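Re: the 170-residue chain
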Amino acid sequence: MESKPVSDSQVEIAEVMQPQHANPANNVFGGVIMSIIDNAALIVASRHTHLNCVTASVDRLDFLSPVFIGNLVVAKSSLNYVGKTSMEIGVRVEAECLITGKKAHVASAYLTFVALDENDKPIIVPELILKTEEEKRRFKEGKERKEKRVKKIRNSKPQGPCIQRIDNVS
């Protein structure tokens, strides 16, 4: 499996917000922005692996500025960190008013994706070639976030099943 540079999988996607993306006050639904984020990250993961990839987690997501009907939403997405079977992808979302040209940072998120084999089992992904100091910094920070996520999962106590099995139903 050949290592790949960050630049090979980076993506920038854009979409004009339409009435179906918003509530009656013309504010774009947060779920629409979340979908754009997930889609941008999926493209990066798929470009890096050329495999079926799925979202494993989304780190904190804060909506920093409203988005309105008619705004252009741009999601810039890039690999930060690659582990054995998982990848952390950073996405920055900006909105632009096409009439005034004003831009605003709308949201940022870190998503973890896992590549799957033909049996839907996690598979080893290509390593990342880091060329710039920024890529090296983002890789280091991504690795630290991954370690915190793994530690948090290991320290959380199972709550037990939500649905109990019912036998001998009459």
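The CA atoms of residues 132 and 141 lie 14 Å apart.
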